[in-house]
Structure formats: structure tokens, C-alpha cells
Amino acid sequence: MPVVRALTKVAKKALLTPGCGCQVSAVAVRHVSFSPRQVTNASDASFHSVSFSETDHPKVLITGGLGQLGVGLAKLLRKRFGKNNVILSDIRKPPTHVFHSGPFIYSDILDYKNLREIVVNNRITWLVHYSALLSAVGEANVALARAVNITGLHNILDIAAEHGLRLFVPSTIGAFGPTSPRNPTPDLCVQRPRTIYGVSKAHAELMGEYYHHRYGLDFRCLRYPGIISADSQPGGGTTDYAVQIFHDAVKTGKFECNLKPDTRLPMMYIDDCLRATLEVMEAPAETLSMRTYNINAMSFTPDELVQEVQKQLPDLQITYKIDPVRQAIADSWPMNFDDSNARNDWRWKHDYDLPELVQTMLNFIGSESQVAQVS
Ligand SMILES: NC(=O)c1ccc[n+]([C@@H]2O[C@H](COP(=O)([O-])OP(=O)(O)OC[C@H]3O[C@@H](n4cnc5c(N)ncnc54)[C@H](O)[C@@H]3O)[C@@H](O)[C@H]2O)c1
Ligand SMILES: C[C@@H](O)[C@H](N)C(=O)O
């Protein structure tokens, strides 16, 4: 299915599906006796009620875990901390293989009381907050994106502060805008994003850092580039073309690209992204000179990606049908990301450049499609 149609379908689904977070108008009003607003100085942050010895494994909750990144992260964290120490959650129904691979729980991040109950009953110590509406879907439904990405984040921050959790919230290249330096984009510079997604992520960075300084919240944030994965589908972003091309190339030998051939964006293979997430979560606090870091691996245009894929599949045919919404977003985003602070502070290092990415994606999708043909 062409990407544009797939996106429209995702956006419509987000608008129409009951329980997809659309109960925005009924956002839960908080009835709690504690609020970080009641904490009067940073030293009071020692109220943390959960006893968690450093020698224990963390007990992790992942919100929005059924999207492109959550299932892979759960797999990585379960390998490290044990299957039952990592709980996936979402508002969607998990596929059978995910349901049987470890603990799964329903959680709508707009339901503050339910979220708190899950954290308390499961003695959660780390929270990875993945729920969000991405850039293109967000522009198609600003009210829902504002509710999930901003109101939802407020719930997460309060619960994390209240229960002394280590909190990871991903940000994005989309937290920058047309007035930011684009080549390269450093950690600290002008941030005036022009999408609701970008505005909500810049807000998340600032709120997380504020809670860190004000209440001692252990907030950690990475700005991810566009993430490319073979066994999970992107949720409606501007960088989705760089995933879809591999599926179409293997299955039909044709690809219609919705960005111009010379649109350069930072990108990363999913294994690097998930490993970075674990590494920054495990980094000793004293190594973190900042709480929000750019991370980077490679940067390419559709034309450069096509040329690399054509080294393996020379018959691949490309056409361009530009989506004006996505093109305008991409034109306002960084072309190259400066991640030198992550590399210096906690030794971030990517494994996959463009050739390894293309080889890995084609191997995975190619072998999957062979299995499908046989069965
Ligand atoms: N994938 C990327 O390229 C990329 C790049 C930069 C940053 N990020 C960030 O990483 C995180 C995960 O990204 P992803 O690609 O897996 O996203 P995704 O869109 O694939 O998945 C998001 C998930 O959030 C869930 N969700 C929506 N409303 C919810 C609600 N009210 N309560 C609970 N869950 C809800 C959805 O059901 C979905 O499964 C997001 O915060 C995203 O902004 C992703
Ligand atoms: C870059 C990232 O945040 C997401 N893949 C998007 O395009 O919206």
C-alpha cells in the first residue's frame, strides 16, 4: 500500500477508533493528594516511597509499547533484566506473539489513576514513555496529538516524580524547526518547531528538565533521528518512507517516494536506537552533563538511499509523488545531527551506517517474504 494511503488510514484510525486516546474530551481530572507542586524544595525529592536497591533489576513499564519501537525495546530489556521485569502497555490489543512473549497490560496515559495503580501494584522503578502521535499523524489531528503528547506527558511526569521513578522520554529531530541550525544541529540551539509533534517534544524536554532540577526527578531524554526497522511498522511520521522503501522494493520492485530526492534527514537503525536507550538509562548520573541528548548514526537523502538499495536490487523503479505536508516538515528539520555530547559523556557509538542498514533490512525482509511464499 503506498505510504500516503497508509498514513491516511492510520490518521483515520486514530480519529475513529474508540479507546485510541480519543476520549480526549474526557481527560481524567486528577484526584490525588500529592502533587509535585506541593514539594517546596529540591531536597524534598527524597520522599521517594519505592525502596529500590541498585543491585536489584529495575522493574520497567513501557507506555505506547505496541508501536514501532516498544516491542523491540521490551525484548532487549527482558534479555537484560528478566522477562517478568518488563511490562509492555498500550491502548491497543497486542498481537498473539507479543501477548505471549511477556507481561502486557492495558494503559491509557490519559487515565492518571489507572497509570498510578499500575506503577504501584507492579512496584515499577523505570518508566519508558513511548506513547505519542508522530509528526504527520499529529498534523492530521492536532487536538488528539496535544492531548496524548502534552496532557499525557504531564500525567507521566507527576507519576514518575511521585513514585521516584527513573523516566525515559524520547524526543526527536522534530523538536527543532526552520530557524535552528540544520547542518549540523547541536544539542543546544534555537528550537522553534512548526508541528504540534515538535512543539510537544520541545515541551517534554523542558518539562522533564524542569522536574529534574525542581524535584530531583531522574529524567533522561534522547532525541532520536528517523528510526528504521524491518519487523515493526512506523506509526505515521515524516521519515516513514525510509522503512516502506525496503518492503516495496522486495515485494513489488517499485517504490513511490513522498519526499523529494534531495531531502536530507538524520536516520538510525532500530538496534542502535534501542541500545542507546538502554545505555543512557544505565549511565551513572554523574556522567550525564545534560538530561537531553542528540544521538545520531547516519544522514541520507531518498536518492542516496535508492542508490544503495539498487546496489542489491538493480531493477528497483522509483517514482516521486511529493506529500506537501511531509515535505514541509522535512524541510524544517535537521539535515545532520551533532551528537558529540552523547559520544563524550556516556560513550555513545552507533554500529550501523547506510550500507549495513540496507543489507540488514533487505536480508530480513527478503527472508520473511521467502517464508511467506513457501507457507
Ligand atoms: N519511530 C521513530 O522514528 C521515532 C523517532 C523519534 C522519536 N520517536 C519517539 O519514540 C516514541 C515511540 O515511537 P514509535 O515510533 O514506537 O511510535 P508509534 O506511533 O509507532 O507508537 C506509539 C504508540 O502509542 C500508543 N498510544 C497512542 N495514544 C495512547 C494513549 N492515550 N495511551 C497509551 N498509548 C497510546 C499507540 O497505540 C502506539 O502503539 C514516540 O514518543 C516517538 O515520538 C520515534
Ligand atoms: C523523526 C520521528 O520523530 C518520526 N519518525 C517522525 O517522522 O515523525
From TrEMBL:
| Assigned keywords, A-Z | Oxidoreductase
Q: What is this protein called?
A: L-threonine 3-dehydrogenase, mitochondrial
Q: Which family is it part of? A: Belongs to the NAD(P)-dependent epimerase/dehydratase family.
Briefly, what is this protein's role?
Answer: Catalyzes the NAD(+)-dependent oxidation of L-threonine to 2-amino-3-ketobutyrate, mediating L-threonine catabolism.
One function term, GO molecular function aspect: L-threonine 3-dehydrogenase activity
Do you know which InterPro entries this protein is assigned to?
Epimerase_deHydtase, NAD(P)-bd_dom_sf, NAD(P)_epim/dehydratase
Pfam families documented for this protein: Epimerase
Sorted alphabetically, the Gene Ontology BP terms of this entry are: L-threonine catabolic process
Species the sequence originates in: Ictalurus furcatus (Blue catfish)
Give the EC number(s) listed in the UniProt record: 1.1.1.103
Looking up SUPFAM superfamilies in the UniProt record yields: NAD(P)-binding Rossmann-fold domains (SSF51735)
User: What pathway is this protein said to act in by its record?
Assistant: Amino-acid degradation; L-threonine degradation via oxydo-reductase pathway; glycine from L-threonine: step 1/2
PANTHER family assigned: L-THREONINE 3-DEHYDROGENASE (PTHR42687), L-THREONINE 3-DEHYDROGENASE, MITOCHONDRIAL (PTHR42687:SF4)
Q: Which residues form the NAD-dependent epimerase/dehydratase domain?
A: 60-295
Q: Which CDD domains match?
A: TDH_SDR_e
